[in-house]
Amino acid sequence: MEDHEPATSSPDDSHHAGASVIERGEKLNQARRRLFPHALCVGLLTGVLAVAFRVCLDRGEEWRSHFLAWAATAGGLGIASLVVMACLVVGVSLWLIKAICPEASGSGIPHLRLVLSERGRLNWRRVIPVKFVSGWLAIAGGLCLGREGPTIQMGASLGAMWGESHLGKSADRRTLVVTGASAGLATAFNAPMAGILFSIEELHINLPESAFFAAMISCISSDLLARSILGQTPVLQATINQIPPLESLPFFIVLGILCGCLAWLFNHSLVFTTRHLTFQSFQPNLTKVLIAGSTLAMVGWYYPPLLGGGIDLSNRALTGEGTIAWLSAMLVLRFLMSIGSYAVGTAGGIFAPLLVLGGLLGLLTGEISQHLFPTAVPEPTAFAVVGMAAVFASVVRCPLTGIVLIIEMTGHYALILPLMVASFTAAITADELHVAPVYDALLESQLATTATPEAITESAGTR
What we know:
With 463 residues, this protein is mainly α. The chain has 2 domains: 27-230, Orthogonal Bundle (Clc chloride channel); 246-453, Clc chloride channel (Orthogonal Bundle). 74% of the residues lie in helices and 0% in strands. Helix 6 packs parallel to helix 8 (210-230). The protein is globular, with a radius of gyration of 24 Å.
């Protein structure tokens, strides 16, 4: 047997490896410098559009409240007016989607993932106006949908617009789509860190390292613009006077398990209803419009806080309002309305509805836990905050985004340990129950239908 000397690396090899690392770092720095002005502009444009959308929604919800107050004093005429107005709002919002821009339906995130995987097109000329108007009509009209879905897709569309105008056929155009989407989430909730993490956990499909730098720039610029106009007050107002003791962590684990079970029910219900009710035809279904409009009218007549994005209902949960019976009833009714609203097929997201469900389930769990173990659970409202993140983590399967989102929306950084415990427990529970992440499930459901989003897009484009 021949003796072999151990292989050794020569000084030239080490020098070559070091040079490769330096060269790679320099290329990354060049990409960052190249993307910086584009990401900044996309972030500012997204901030302007998202702020306009938030202001319009606020005004629309004020008009809805005034209209409901008038209807309550008008007897039969008031009820009839509510039904007619609700059907008109739902019908126009749905017609815009079906007739002009089908890919603007729902949150738009499944379609965005198709675009980023290069299996779909993003027609920003149609998406931006249709998403804005349809989302405004749907949410201000009372459907239980979130504003973040429209702002994410509109932000991505602004990124596509800027890239088409300034980057030609450069590969950086996909990066700008992600930066715009991230800025859309950041501006919707005054949560720039959550916007950055969203691009990593949800929109990371084959993206270069420089994309996350660009997302950071766009999120910061859009959020700064939004805060300068709308103020820096947290979106959610949580009243928590005492940090939960370590003895309460087992109860947060229980909350995480419950949130994982809720994710199973929510995701399966959402996929079932959208598969059977959405993307079935290009024209609005009159029966669907009448059912949705009548339901909104009746709910608005009997209990208006159930309508819309649910920020007020979330704030009620975060301040500890409501008995166990009221929380249970609101949880069931809001769950049904959230599923039904998304199935209608108008523009609107699911983040805000998830936060409402999480807040209600969290406070309900906290109230029951305090009743049984008062010394271990001194303040149930902390469970409302944690429940929001845990439901988000289990449904969307982006636990880091959910944790940071709730911290930024409430300002309660001291809840980081319960948030992590419950959120990762919820995500693990959802995994064990074989619950697909909601956007994966929705995308698979859309692709499984005879009229896929892209086929719909092409057909709508020929009209």
